[in-house]
Every structure is written in C-alpha cells, then in structure tokens.
Write a structure and sequence with these properties.
The protein is of the alpha/beta class. About 30% of the residues lie in helices and about 20% in strands.
C-alpha cells in the first residue's frame, strides 16, 4: 500500500453498462499522460502526482460509486458479455508479460502457475500463435490449461513466465529455463524476490520484471485482450469458475482462497 493510504474499497477488475445498455470496461490505472513514461506508452509507470490504481490504492469497483477518467473507459466488443469483462484486466497483465519477454518464433514457453493470470498468459500465447505449456499445482488448473490448448511441462524452455510469485515458483522457473533463458516475473513479491543464485548464475538467466500494462506504440493493451476474449468465449468459460451476487461477497472471498477446492476466478456480480 502506498504511503499515506489508510484504506480503500477493493475492485480493480470491473466493468458495467451505461444507461443505454452499452458495456464498458474500466481501466483502473489512473495516470497523468504528460510525463516521459506516459508519452512513451508506459502509462503504468506514470511519474506524475495523482498516479494511482482504482481498487488497489483508492476506491474501486466494489464501492457504491467510483469516479473515473473518460479515457479509462473501453467500450466492449459486442461479442464480449459484460459479466466476463473482468478478465480484461488480468488478461492485460499476462499480455504485457508476453510482450516484455519478446518471444521469438520457435521459442518454447512455460507458464508457472495455474491461477487466472497464468491461464490467461497461456491463452494469450496460444492466441498469438505460440506454443505454450503450463506447470500447475492443482488438478483442476491442469484441466483448465489443457482445455485452453496448453501442454504439460517437458524439457527446457526459452521463456518462463512466473505467474505465481512465490519462492517455489521462481525456483521452478529457474530450473525449467534453458541456459541463457529468460524469466518474466508476473507474480507480485511483496518483499525480496528470492532468486536462486547458483542456477541463475550458471545458466546466465535473464530476469525481466513486468507490471500491469500500458499503451505501447499507441495501442491499448486492454483493447487487445478484449478482442481476444470476444473471439474466444471458451477462455472465460474455462477460467471463471464461480459467480456470486454482491450480498454473498464474503462467501466469494472465502471460496477464492481455497484453490484446492476447484476455484480459479471467482466473480462478484452486482
């Protein structure tokens, strides 16, 4: 939590409809647009006062009302149900990680972690015509990865996306990477990132940090992901495992915390 923030209401993955019934996704990153980072398309690295993220550092989608910049709104493709549009935000994180990896044709990709971001990273790779395997902890995550067209881990990989953010996942990523390979950190390490020293040194591994998403080359990352979800409804059908009304939010959070009980993405629908 940023210095000076004493409390906020959750919800950084949200969407809704206007009075006409048109669906909109709300891009939660609030940025100034004038600093060098913003001008370069890296709005997630905005250096201006007021830079924040709705639902993480200030009130978000679970609040009664939220004021957002008009530029934060993205009209949804007609084929994308507003109830599935919450996947645009985590999907954009995954998409940005792939972009940061600069995957070349023919390179082998492994995703470590079978949560929503890990599975969305695998889906994004398949959507871009890349071969990808997924290393999961739970059987239901493996089944979901296979439904999305991913394979099981085997051999060494040119690119490994660590989508779990734990000591064991970064160690697994280093073990799975080939000599000279690249590891992209999608998981959040709140303190020190426990990079395994000897294997990383011997393999001369490169670690690439990836946070959120921006507008590289003037293209909104969230728009690319919205298009992917609209053309591939099986992604939402596979990843969203539970839906609850707002009154059952407490139960939704409980279920979301029990990964071994079959939950992947738990959605609250007002």
């Amino acid at each position: 939590m940023a210095a000076g923030i004493t409390g906020f209401i959750y919800g950084h993955e949200f969407a809704g409809v206007d009075d006409s019934g048109t669906g909109y996704f709300v891009e939660p990153i609030i940025y100034g647009g004038k600093c060098e980072e913003c001008q370069g398309g890296n709005t997630q690295r905005c250096a201006e006062p007021g830079h924040t993220t709705l639902g993480i550092f200030s009130n978000g989608g679970m609040a009664d009302t939220v004021v957002v910049q008009e530029d934060s709104l993205l009209a949804l493709p007609a084929q994308l149900d507003v109830k599935d549009a919450c996947l645009i935000e985590p999907g954009s994180i995954a998409w940005h990680g792939l972009r940061r990896a600069q995957v070349q044709p023919g390179e082998r990709i492994l995703v470590v972690g079978g949560g929503s971001i890990g599975l969305l990273a695998a889906a994004a790779a398949k959507h871009q015509g890349l071969d990808v395997d997924v290393d999961t902890r739970h059987d239901h995550q493996l089944a979901a990865a296979e439904r999305l067209g991913s394979g099981r881990p085997s051999g060494a990989y040119d690119v490994v996306l660590d989508a779990a953010g734990s000591e064991s996942s970064v160690a697994r990523s280093a073990d799975a990477a080939r000599p000279g390979g690249r590891i992209v950190s999608l998981g959040v390490y709140m303190t020190t990132m426990p990079i395994p020293g000897l294997v990383s040194l011997n393999k001369e591994l490169t670690y690439i940090n990836s946070i959120a998403y921006g507008r590289p080359d003037g293209v909104r990352g969230v728009e690319e992901v919205a298009s992917m979800l609209a053309t591939k409804p099986e992604i939402a059908q596979t990843i969203i495992t539970h839906r609850y009304p707002t009154d059952d939010a407490q139960e939704a959070f409980r279920v979301a915390g029990e990964r071994n009980a079959g939950a992947i993405k738990v959605v609250i629908e007002p």
